[in-house]
Amino acid sequence: MGGNIEQDNSGFLWKNEAVRLMRNCRYSDAFKLIKPHLYSGDDDASALILTILRHSDNVFQLIEEVDYIKERALAGDSIMQFAWARYNDAVSPEAESCSIAEKYYNAALRAGIADARMYLAFMYRDGDLGFVDRSRYFQERDKAVVEGSHTAVQQTVRDIVYGNSGCQAEPEKALEMLKKYIHSESPGIYLDPEYYALAGDAAYALGNVDDASSWYRRAMNEGCLRACFFLALAAACDVDGRISDTEQFFEIMEKGQELRCPAAFLAVQMAVDEDDFENYGTELQDQVTSGLELDLETAYTLGDSIGAYYLGCHYYEGNFGFGKNDETAWMWFSRGAVRRDPFCYKMLAVMLRDENCSKKMSRDFLNECELRALRLGCEDMLDNVVDAYKNGFLTEYAAEIEQYYLPLASNQDEEQYDEPDDDGRFDAWA
């Protein structure tokens, strides 16, 4: 069939097959099918490749294509320059991956790829280029929206759903925006399924679980990998994330594993309670431990840094049948930190503070782990970062800390009241 697709002059056969592969989350196969058509002037080919590259889960499926991507990027192919930037940004295979990503995002941006600007904006937001610059993030995000970046539009909607980046949380407004976009915009031959997943996020934030499940299922059927996990949360878990419908939960997660959704391999982790584990027989415990290890390693390999975090925690705490091993815990936390997991950075700092590893790292490294965790969203590192700065550390980040973190810490201090020893009336008032 592949040969017939290659020879089809109308383009319909290969495009239909490419869309079919993408809807089944077979992004590596779709990439191989589309790439010969990138150089024929077919805009659909470029649009489909950019949709694949837009999401990190998809990028992890392209590891077999890395040599081709790099070769074409070095030769000046703008689409492959964006692909090479995305690979280094998402997978981070080398120590200099961050600078490689920045270089090739800029090259792709000069060629007119608007999504490249948005990924540079994320780097400004997260401090990947040295320091956090939120003003530059907003500036680049808004410019990318005007230029037609789907990534920028999706991030703007996401901020409206959750009230991030200075936005007021307005999930109802976001859902209406998405419905209008989905139904009125011309998506070409394939609409990025992330738009359906975002509609699911908005519906879930509004408490409309059935609507959220419907949107997530549609997103999953259109090829959105993350939608598999969120469908399981919406359809088979309570508001605290505890499984309420075991049969449906595992049915959805098994489907996700078939599609190679990274987060779907967290099924056992979510299903097994540590107290229950202690009551299992030896044989069942061994099965659970080996199953957890295999699934969490698979989740990490497919791109989910939380797999590395859980493995690090299990080896650090010695639970779920994992023998306590600080060296192995450090290894997994380090792997997750490379993938920008804030809690892995936090745990590296915790291990150094508790002196529970043989690594002889400087105090500066400990403080930088806490700062990196805070930048990426681990807010319980705020006091540690502020205290370190007030005690003469992290001085090279003075502008960032004084602009963003000192005011935040001050606001939190003002919001904390000393509770008087009374009969509960203060609590009622609070």
Structural shape: globular
Number of helices: 26
Count all strands and give the number: 0
Beta content comes to under 5%
- Structural class by sheet pairing and helices: mainly alpha
Radius of gyration: 23 Å
Please give the share of residues in helix: 55-70%
Q: Separation of termini? A: 68 Å
| Nearest-integer average pLDDT | 91
Series of secondary-structure elements, N-terminal to C-terminal? HHHHHHHHHHHHHHHHHHHHHHHHHH
Low-confidence stretches: 1-8, 417-430
For the sheet with most strands, the description reads: none
Would you write up a description of this structure?
The chain is 68% helix and 0% strand. It contains 26 helices and no strands. The N and C termini lie far apart (68 Å). The model is unreliable at 1-8 and 417-430 (pLDDT under 50).
Summarize the structure.
With 430 residues, the chain is mainly alpha-helical. The chain is built from 26 helices and no strands.
Sequence-ordered SSE layout with sheet pairings:
Layout lengths: L1 H6 L4 H12 L3 H8 L8 H11 L2 H4 L6 H9 L3 H14 L5 H14 L3 H13 L7 H14 L2 H13 L8 H14 L9 H12 L3 H13 L4 H11 L9 H13 L8 H5 L2 H5 L3 H20 L3 H13 L8 H13 L3 H12 L9 H13 L6 H9 L7 H18 L9 H5 L1
